[in-house]
Amino acid sequence: MYKIYINGTPLFFISTKDFKSLELEGNNFIKMRYVGKKKFLHNYIDLLEKNTSFDAVVLHFNDLKKLWSDFKEIFKIMKAAGGVVENDEGKVLMIYRLGHWDLPKGKIEKKETKKEAAVREVQEETGVQNIDLQDFIHTTYHTYIDRKDRRVLKYTYWYKMKTSDSNLVPQTEEAIEKAEFVDLKAFFSSPKKIYGNILDVLNEYQKEI
Questions:
Q1: For the chain, which domains are there?
Q2: pLDDT digits (tens, 9 = 90+) for 160-202
Q3: Is 74 helix (H, G, I), strand (E, B) or coil?
Q4: Closest listed residue to residue 184, CA positions, set 82, 83, 100, 86
Q5: Secondary structure (3-state) at 196
Q6: From CA 78, how far away is CA 76, in angstroms rounded?
């Protein structure tokens, strides 16, 4: 199964044999069988880029690899990496940027591995330097329109990390206003603006601890 966020709404791709077992939260869904034509995908991408009223859109198809391949051909692919960084007190490093709480991440540079990029981006965006890179957590997907008006599909590879550092320096040139270690239970005890893909990463992280 694939889960891609388009304008904040999750778009699920799932094989037809697994379709009936998919459980979703909410009430306002579109559930359709993919007909094998990219024009069909364009219609749903357009819909989600212009509309935020749906809880989710689900497309199922017998050949999940073909559905995913057809979808990717519509986009420019960009790959990034980031980390869920835990300190000695078990708190997680969050950043605040453009009105949303987020996790440190960024583009994978040429000749750089996913792991190297994840560590570098955490260091650059938060000031944390002493990083113990641990297990891979999860891959997220979301789309956006770039400055050249191109549709971009962004893969982000997430890793668990630990640090003993406490000195945080948010990267203000990347519009990061805050970098803070937070207790996740207390953090989510009141409403927060946070992207759906970031919530997914944190949920996967919490399953593993």
A1: 2-72 (no CATH), 77-207 (3.90.79.10)
A2: 999 999 999 999 999 999 999 999 999 999 989 999 999 999 9
A3: coil
A4: 86
A5: helix
A6: 7
DSSP-based three-state secondary structure for 127: coil
Residue 112, amino acid: E
Distance CA 194, CA 163 (A): 23
If DSSP codes are grouped into helix, strand and coil, which group holds residue 35? Answer: coil
The interaxial angle of helices 38-50 and 64-72, nearest 10 deg, is 60
Cα–Cα distance between 47 and 206 in angstroms, integer? 33
Burial class (CB in 10 A: 0-12, 13-18, 19+), 97: middle
- Which residues are bridge partners to 4 per DSSP? 11, 141
What the block records as the tokens of 90 is 């078990």
CA distances to 2, 128, 169, 202, 209 from 131, in Å: 30, 7, 15, 19, 18
